[in-house]
Amino acid sequence: MSNRARDNYVQNHPAQGHRAQSILADVFGYANFRGQQEEIINHVIQGGDALVLMPTGGGKSLCYQIPALVRPGTAIVISPLIALMQDQVDSMRLLGIRAVALHSGLSFEEQMDVQNGLMRGEFDLLYISPERLLTHKMLDLLGHLTLSLFAIDEAHCVSQWGHDFRPEYLQLSILHERFSHVPRIALTATADQRTRKEIAERLNLADARFFISSFDRPNIFYRLTQKREARKQLLDFILKDHAGQSGIVYCLSRRKVEELTTWLQRHGVQALPYHAGLDSEVRHHNQQQFQTTDNMVMVATIAFGMGVDKPDVRFVAHMDMPRSIEAYYQETGRAGRDGLPATAWLVYGLQDVIVLGQMLAQSGMNQQIQQLERQRLNAMLGFCEISGCRRQALLDYFGEHRDGKCGNCDLCVEPVATWDATDAARKALSNVYRTGQRYGVTHLVDVLLGRSNKRVKSLGHEQVSTFGLGKELSQPVWRSVYRQLVARGYVTVTSETHGGLLLTEKSRSLLKGEEQLELRRDRYEVHELKVALPEAKLEGDSAELWEELRALRMQLAKEREVPPFQVFSDATLRGMMASRPGSLEEMLQVSGVGQFKLEQYGEAFLEVLGKHAVA
User: Fold this and answer.
1) What are phi and psi of 187, to 5 degrees?
2) HSE on the CB side for 614, CA within 13 Å?
């Protein structure tokens, strides 16, 4: 807090000024803790180490921010990205909290000001990258400070098996060795059992208490479909369900990002590109535009996203299949951080598996890691091809059981049709064997359909017994059969033959007629989207009030040069509309309105609300 705010806080709350519950209400504006937050916070306040797994939007930051305000000294928050650090610092300052970041984007004079302020005890939280923290100069400086705690954010970056590995994170075990008296809290939104174990071992947190929250994001509607005309499918989805709203669209390549951005712009969608090949100033500008605009779509590679602190992202779309369920979960988790309804949308095809497999083969990773990554890729394809509840399957992957269907995914809203594909699958597998187990789906389908094209003739495949054996099914259906056989593990895609299919041991029983097989019928859209958590439609006076509140928020945000959501989130604005406070005291009861923000913005929002007072 600022010195004045801290003094006022202590004077007004002499008996409970430093209790976590009071800080939660008076500083952050929330009446109650969620889930395990209170237990985690009390554990850290008492000096305990903790490993916290909590989904994006679950309130991880409070788990170290509140202890930082309760315990004496400065909290050191280790964060992997400058943009993430700055967003956090801006948010803290808007709450009146004394937070600062130390990074390479600051001038020498600014860096010296921060270091001098640390020595004078002027900050409650210091955000810093692992690279800078690990310098001898910084470690020596920390040795002269009173430290309240170390928070290691995005802790999954320590995992060499993971998709966001940062080698500098491996050296953070020095904190335990050099500052053993300072509690440490490691936090992440995504970690399977293997990654949890690796985080604990590499950060010397074996004796820490583990807090594992539910991985469920009940406000996200999961919606996956096969690719047909991917751009048109995406545009229809945006215009039909999320017109004028913020979203992220992920693509596999930089070229695809650029081309899709231009195409969306031509079709009336406000879109900007983001990938590692852009100039750093352009990337920074585009990210700022996304953060500060209510209806911007960011088209990006996975270079964009870690720590995106924009709560009103209403959809995350994937134009290509992610390389693992962990990556999918983390990327889709950037939608709906405010708890309001959001959509995770994905189109996929077997070609995605082939391309990702080739990228993996060319990655230079050792064979053990490649094998694990291939297993994760196959698990992701399997998730795409399930016929049951998406949420159940997603939670099962992370070791969390859910009873009953969720009612808030495409397969719950409109169950997929299946068919007895035993005979078709046996023909498809036999065709792989007869042609030599080295050809891709396009060629295999040509053989089954009896197409005497140049390649079929040159390879002599007009003579195999499966030539023309599949004329009863169409080309799209045969492609679907092969894709699902890959997903079910009956065949595998080999990178050595550029996407050729190879039979697995599992295929033996099916070829021998010892088992039956049902497959999904492909569909390219869910027709009845009766989602479980529909966003309330605003009409008449409510719609006018909503737009006026948003306009005021935007005005205040521009004056302070911060994103609008850092003034108040959409959820807080809706809370104001629901309760219609008529005084500052009543305004303080709205979730997300703390004492400092009340002093800054309360009167302005009350004035707008007063114009729409219910008679």
Assistant:
1) -130, 140
2) 7
Place of tokens 């909590």: 54
- Which of 172, 192, 212 is at the close of a domain? 212
Residues 41 and 34: their CA atoms lie apart, in Å, by: 11
First to last CA, the chain: 39
> By the 8 A CB rule, do 53 and 212 touch?
yes
Cβ neighbourhood burial of 180 (10 Å; 0-12, 13-18, 19+): exposed
Please give the share of the chain, as a percent, with pLDDT higher than 90.
Answer: 55
Angle among Cα 378, 384, 385 to the nearest 5 degrees reads: 90
Give 3-state DSSP helix, strand, coil % of the chain, rounded to 5.
Answer: 45, 15, 40
Q: Is the pLDDT of residue 164 over 80?
A: no
Q: Tell which wins on pLDDT, 112 or 307.
A: 112
Full-prediction pTM beyond 0.85? no
Counting the structural domains of the chain, the total is 4
Is 82 strand, coil or helix? helix
Q: What are phi and psi of 468, to 5 degrees?
A: 75, 10
Phi, psi of 446 (to 5 degrees): -60, -40
Same domain, yes or no, for 266 and 389? yes
- Main-chain dihedrals φ then ψ at residue 243, nearest 5 degrees: -60, 135
Q: Do residues 370 and 361 touch, judged by C-beta distance below 8 A? A: yes
pLDDT in tens, 424-443: 999 999 999 999 999 999 99
Please tell me the distance from the alpha carbon of residue 184 to that of residue 64, in angstroms, as a whole number.
9
